[in-house]
Amino acid sequence: MPVRAGSELRRLLEERLLGRALTGRLVAGPGAADAVRVAAELVAAGFRVALEHVSAHDQDAAAELLSLVGQVHSAGLSGDCELTLPVDRLGGARAQRVGRAAAEAGLGVVLDGPSRDVDGLRSAATGVVVAAGEADAEDRCRALARDHVRLVPGPSAPGHRADAELAFVRCLNVLMAGEGRPGIAVSDPRLIAIAGERAAWNGRTPDSWELVMPYGVLTHEQRRLVAAGYTVRVTVPSGPAAAAAVVTRRLAGRS
Fold first, then answer.
1. Range of the structural domain that residue 74 is part of
2. Residue 147: how many CB atoms within 10 A of its CB?
3. Which of 162, 204, 224, 238 can bridge 28 by disulfide, Cβ–Cβ 3.0-4.6 Å?
4. Contacts of 250 (CB under 8 A, 6+ apart)
């Protein structure tokens, strides 16, 4: 495809995704209360929730996340929610502070960021996001196979989707064969089917792993999976900068 045509296609995709995000189809809304409202709706429908709040400014991030933690706890939703902490944006000290508050409120905590930032903060009580497209992803999955890992796709180079999917499946195999509790972040029906097959092959019970799927995407499939007995956790983005974050992540190949 010519460079100009490829750039135009990307621009149109960005506009489409941003339009869906800004109309509330892909994000809960700008405030913590929006995230709590959507989380309550999802929990009532049988889902679990991964909260992903994105502030407009890094200096506001910890305060907004602490407010979200308090509101989730007050709403009685802590047991069904995880809080994703962007360690690279928060910094180690603030991530620790928010993580402690979340744990005290009964929320699960999942650390997201480069391994050099995350590994020093990780404990047995925290999960870790691993991107299958990273060079050391398979090795990290082996090292973390006894723990809670949220496996996400990407990043992948243009034109190398098949390679990216193979990398994802290799990491998936490692985690499903381990003793931890993997969260498999997928929105591709074929990869969803592969995850289910690998779980069955390894004799996993439905509560020993989960599918992690984006808010507002494949909603009928999400309901079908829950009805079929799968554990499905829906990622719920919120915050002033959530729409832009969703677009960036989807374009990078991360569900």
1. 3-251
2. 19
3. 238
4. 17, 214
User: Alpha helices of the chain — where are they, by DSSP H?
Assistant: 3-22, 32-44, 61-74, 87-90, 92-104, 115-118, 137-143, 161-177, 189-201, 219-227, 242-251
Higher pLDDT, 3 or 161: 161
pLDDT of 154-200, one tens digit each?
766 566 678 889 999 999 999 999 999 999 999 899 999 999 999 99
The amino acid at residue 108 is G
Token output for 106: 């009964």
Q: Are 82 and 51 in contact (CB under 8 A)?
A: yes
Q: Can you give the pTM of this predicted structure?
A: 0.87
Each residue's pLDDT tens digit, 28-80: 899 999 999 999 999 999 999 999 999 888 778 999 999 999 999 999 999 99
Total domain count, the chain: 1
CB of 133 within 8 A of CB of 166? Answer: no
Sign of the torsion formed by the C-alpha atoms of 28, 29, 30 and 35 = negative
What is the per-residue pLDDT for 59?
72
174-198 core/surface letters (b: 16 or more CB in 10 A; e: else): bbbebebbbbbbbbeeebbebbbeb
What's 210's domain CATH number? Answer: 3.20.20.220
Number of H helices and number of E strands within the chain? 11, 8
Both structure tokens of 118: 């995350």
